[in-house]
Protein 1
Amino acid sequence: MLVVEGLVKRFGGFTAVSNVSFKVDQGEILGLIGPNGSGKSTIFNMLSGTFPPSAGSIKFEGSEIAGLAPHRIINRGIGRTFQIPRPFRRLTIFENVELAGFYGQGSHSRAKADEAAEKALAMVGLPTDRRAPVDGLGAAGLKKLELAKALATSPKLLLADESLGGLDEAEMDQAADMLRKIRDELGITIIWVEHIMGVLMRVVDRVMVLDHGEKISEGLPSAVSSDPKVIEVYLGTDADATQAAAAEKRR
Ligand SMILES: Nc1ncnc2c1ncn2[C@@H]1O[C@H](COP(=O)(O)OP(=O)(O)OP(=O)(O)O)[C@@H](O)[C@H]1O
């Protein structure tokens, strides 16, 4: 479904992403992990059109999309969430999601946008009542709203950026289960960028690990969490390694 080859992003003289290649198959959940500043968000920004790659190719369903504007990429069927939710606070929950629905359709039909918004809100478990305000949503609610906005664009591929930041442990488990439900019930392929490796490992089919803009490991969660390179650069501590191994056992 997605084939990325030789992706590079330079900011001035600094290389944030260095010759990264990977594939994502239809129906898969790929986890993308790595320490702070390893290039995860920069890859998402290139996949979603926020900025163009310095070099490399991004083929989605066989067509080159590298360098296309964000609205064109959304119309092709790639939706994304953002690490820090920034909804329009003067709009209701429904209106925020409806607006995203307008973007995704390309047809600008209100009826279609409303239908997409209702389905997306029901999927993530937020009120479909059109007057429900954004104010009052906690961290978990705002993450759900972020996800509903992305779903309302009717994506075939969802780029989920750090869905678990700011959540407690029970909320993290629910958010991880939600991503799996989105894949299982809607058939949406997912790339999931996350810091919190333990929960991610329970849900993803494959993991790719970045460090300093380079891919250092890729494979099944069990293989990646015991890869010495990953333990050295990413896990860092025995406690983290134990947590990841325990999560893997629970799968
Ligand atoms: N617009 C930009 N201009 C200059 N440097 C940037 C820009 N965006 C990112 N970088 C740099 O590129 C590197 C990779 O950043 P990126 O945000 O992709 O990492 P990340 O793995 O997503 O980190 P985090 O987990 O902290 O979000 C960092 O060193 C960052 O400072």
Protein 2
Amino acid sequence: MATNITFIGAGNMASAIIGGLIDSGIAPDSITATSPTEDMLRPVSQRFGVNTQTDNNAAICNADVVVLAVKPQIMRDVCEAMQETVLQQRPLIVSIAAGLDAETINQWLGGGHAVVRCMPNTPSLVGYGASGLFANQAVTSEQRDTAAQMMEAVGIVEWVEDEALIDAVIAVSGSAPAYFFLMFEAMEEAAVKLGLPADTARRLAIQTALGAATMAQRSEDTPATLKQNVMSPGGTTERAIQHMEDAELRKTIADAMQACADRAQAMSKELSAG
Ligand SMILES: NC(=O)C1=CN([C@@H]2O[C@H](COP(=O)(O)OP(=O)(O)OC[C@H]3O[C@@H](n4cnc5c(N)ncnc54)[C@H](O)[C@@H]3O)[C@@H](O)[C@H]2O)C=CC1
Ligand SMILES: O=C(O)[C@@H]1CCC=N1
């Protein structure tokens, strides 16, 4: 990918994408990351060897792609301060912010921009990212390919043609690594109560998740069938699953994902009005 990419913001999510891009063979000197101070940039500079800049406008001068990776609450100020340079350069804008629609970003940058709204997740760092992408009407097919190539370098990409569905993507993948980490915490705690050492429990739980995910990915069977295959009638798994169903785990998950999507919508209203 012969493209200069500038990340505005060098925090958790930008670092995850940058790390994944470099692992996939992208040259570090084609990537620039920004933050307000050198101190904040030291981790990405030392870990990945990318260019760093504390001045956002200087950082985007030669960028083909500008990835907006700051917190949604400061996005307006950050965009407005870059408006003039972006209007001159017309790079492809990729916003990874939750709860900010493409048109709001476009307006904050002065209007008429090609904006791809992307919802990535932190496993991008290890090449197992899952990103949902939406392109506004100004995005050319070449720019669509560029955005897809960038995110495919760190995982899988799913396009949505209705931007509202990005909120569902946040619920199912953007925020979802945290759901699985919570599951690991809970399984480790429970296994310790059953007598296993914590590190043994953690290794077993994580390897089991990796195995289950890999099976689900490779198999033609549905997750429901794969689950059934583990459940011997009258056996141990059946008892565990029955307990989860009785405790309405499915409803808890559905409610949590709805709360996640609702929060994205509420943020969108708060931030685009403010
Ligand atoms: N953390 C996650 O799992 C995911 C985060 N996102 C989105 O990514 C964005 C960033 O989130 P995180 O990386 O988690 O936050 P973070 O707090 O780790 O990173 C934000 C970065 O912005 C920098 N920053 C602050 N002011 C700046 C300015 N004026 N100019 C340039 N950089 C500035 C900070 O120094 C920091 O490096 C958010 O909009 C979030 O919605 C999207 C998907 C997943
Ligand atoms: O929690 C958040 O708001 C961000 C967006 C998706 C994951 N982290």
